[in-house]
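User: Sequence in, structure out. Go.
Assistant: Echoing your sequence, followed by the structure tokens.
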Amino acid sequence: MAFTNYSSLQRAQLTFEYLHTNSTTHEFLFGALAELVDNARDADATRIDIYTEPRENLRGGFMLGFLDDGAGMDSNDAASVIQFGKSAKRTPESTQIGQYGNGLKSGSMRIGKDFILFTKKDFVMTCLFLSRTFHEEEGIDEVIVPLPSWNARTGEPITDNMEKFAIETELIYKYSPFKSEQEVLEQFRKIRGEKGTLVIIFNLKLMDNGEPELDVTSDPRDIQMAETPPDGTKPERRSFRAYAAVLYIDPRMRIFINGHKIQTKRLSCCLYKPRMYKYASKRFKTRAEQEVKKAEHMARIAEEKAREAESKARALELRLGGDIARESRVMLCQAQNVAITMRRDADVKKRMKEAKQQALKEPKELNFIFGVNIEQRHLDGMFIYNCSRLIKMYEKVGPQLEGGMACGGVVGVVDVPYLVLEPTHNKQDFADAKEYRHLLRAMGEHLAQYWKDVEIAQKGISKFWDDFGYLSANWNAPPSNELRYKRRRAMEIPTTIQCDMCLKWRTLPFQLSSVEQDYPDTWVCSMNPDPEQDRCDALEQKQKLPLSILKKEKSQEDKQKELTEKIRQQQEKLEALQKTTPIRSQADLKKLPLEVTTRPVLENSDQLSRPQRPRSPPLPDVIKNAPSRPPGQLSRSITQQRKGPPARPAISYSRSQSAAFSEEFNISRTQPPAVAHGRSPCTLVRPPPKPVAVGRTPPVPLQNCKSQLPPPSPKHPKLLLPPKKPPVVKQPQPSSSRKRSISAIDDESEEEVGQKKDKRKPGKQVTVKEEKDSNEVVVELTDSAGEEESAELKRAQKDKGQHVEVRVNKEWYTGRITAVEMGKKVVRWKVKFDYVPTDTTPRDRWVERGSEDVRLMKPPSPDHQSPDTQQQQREKVVAAQSSTSECVRTEPDTTASSNNETVDLLAQTLRNCLRYFLPPNFPISKKELSSMNSEELVAFPLKEYFKQYEVGLQNLCNSYQTRANAQAKACEEKLHVQEQKLAETKEKLQKLRTNIVALLQKVQEDIDINTDDELDAYIEDLITRGD
């Protein structure tokens, strides 16, 4: 039906009251200001200046201006601004923020009643004036928008109707703050370049008390929300400077307020221990389903047009019949060509529909970034962006909803594309609330995983925040401003700043002088102390974030199902084993559930008849500490070992052997066994599972042991040992394996005579008693000795983890007890300082408990100790008990000769270490070092030695770093060249596509191609099906 037939129908009208109604969508006033900033960013502006200009004759007392250096608009582009709901940015693949064609009108009308726009492009200056004041005073219902233009070079009007131009300028001079053409042209001159846009809003909206909603007088560097207290309000809700700093996830535009630059942030670079988590889901379908419906609708219309054209062509062919006239053939050929074109277009739309349907089934991927805000821990929550624009902030998810300290201070960042979630018109929420809740649940699960990965709770939450200066119990209290805490926070989060010229982000190296430094508004790359990043042509370093995954734990129901399934499988196997199936043929063997063999039984008869070695039965309590084999069997084992090595080092006995063993042991309690010549006179008593330490010990220290150790208790069993032999002392040989047979130990004692250290269980004490009248040594085991020392050591270990103050150079410094050492009469603490007093003072210091130089800060709290610390305490207590038990030995103390051997061995080891790590230019050579004795080694200049070693090691690391930086620079330059080539190639491809579309439109005027995908599909169809 022709369009002229609709001329008599009623049309919808837009009244000026809609301007106010449309503005009420912005409940958050800063969201209205952000709409004008978004338009500058979409116009590829690199700078936007937001300024106020006092005007006492206007409502509110000032005007609010937005000046950017973007692409600008010509008269046609400006005319599309006043069309509500029309936007050239609205495509599924668009990365621009504006999508609805409504932001400028709704945002400006929310701030004030009137706005005037000045824009420049292609030497054309255009002014657009939208005023509710004009409509109210003139009594006009329709929306009238004056839109005059001037030549940027000559200042002459650009119009075909001077009368219309005069009316437009007259309205501007009457109802705007600019009363003459000179004042209007002066506003165009504020746009410094050849293109850009200036928006001025005036007659601002007022509160009930008659004051403007925006406070521009309290802080000239900021625009604040009037009558909003700072306590209990997020800074982004009160300060537009703070809101604009996080408005974009990757800021590439400088924002100034009254000439003062806003230090924009990349949130992921401002967090402690940031981590990235990849998330994929098929739940986000609303926007994709809309695109599919649109594609299906277009494909259906194209299919109907193609069928109609084909039907007309067939009908024309039948009507013409055998007519061979020229006009008939031309008419038929045209109808057939139209049908072919329609069919190709329908096929293209059909393939596009299928592609979008396939994309609907694919999961949508998102990147979650989490980190800890150690600068302001009470500002935590999720920041959710849409196409790089902030939509929601401080959203609590997962463990943060519980209100505890778990996940407190953690900030999450995610950028959601349009195809996943669509924002509302005011860009303060998302249209699909159900899918948005699903996004929050997914972020909550990943947040809990992040909290486990960083292990803050395992090490102690309170201790973690104390280390960064949060000393108050009030969660909202700011951190301490002490220099040591400020340095600690600055060391963990490097400073990231944007260059004013190239707009690249630079990460500055940490310097102590920069902790309290304020950077200027105009910062350029040449100010960067990093020599690799001190110029604008250097590539921007990408932030390296560790990638983690969500580890989903099985629910209790899943675990129960899995356990039930395993039980069922085991029951089936048991039933299969219990069944007896007669085997009559080869087919019966295949039916059996188990693997069987048809080989004769005689082949395995040797294995079946071979007796299995029985396990050794548990020993009685009476002989638990006896040798693992009687002396009679011990000698036989030595004889067997000389003939050949045993098959296995462990020895197992049958029941009969165990009985013989017990009988022989009972005899040995009253009668000493015969010992071969060269056998050790002292045998260390150990439990049977451990090897017996056999060695030669001198007789003199045994008498000393008798005088030092308490007398044996008569209630404990005694073991009579053979007579003593003249001792032969040799250096002990290390055991080659942890488990060795008794025969192997005896053989070693004959060939390599040495001393073996006895490792007893903690709490056991051995008492050695020597009888003067007889050649007998009585060894007695008791559990009661050493318990007092062990208990006292346990009590001393409880001091670990306490906070203390230590006096160093007449000044007190705080620290924490990290280790406890117990001497004969005193207990010593090892204190690790929170802040090292001087460069010469070690970080750790040993102090005596109860001395005047140490004092407790607060009683110990188990909550402040991490599981790792408690585990270390338990290990150290066990180690102390072991060392206590080892202090009392059946073996005598080493003689003076063994001490000299030990000193020589330590000196030789020290010489080897010094020779190995000797710096290249050290004044002492390796030859001189090898000839040094113990006294010379004591006087060795270790401080100078390690100083030169560290210098050499630092030089080596620097050379590696320089080489790596050079390689990285070369790779970055290559990448930059490739990116330039890629950009040039893409530009050429785009120009080629534009030319192809123009060529196709000239050949066929009714062709409708809007996107590159449609063009590619159309060309592919021409190549595959074209004649």
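User: And one key feature?
Assistant: Residues 1001 and 1007 are 6 Å apart (CA to CA).
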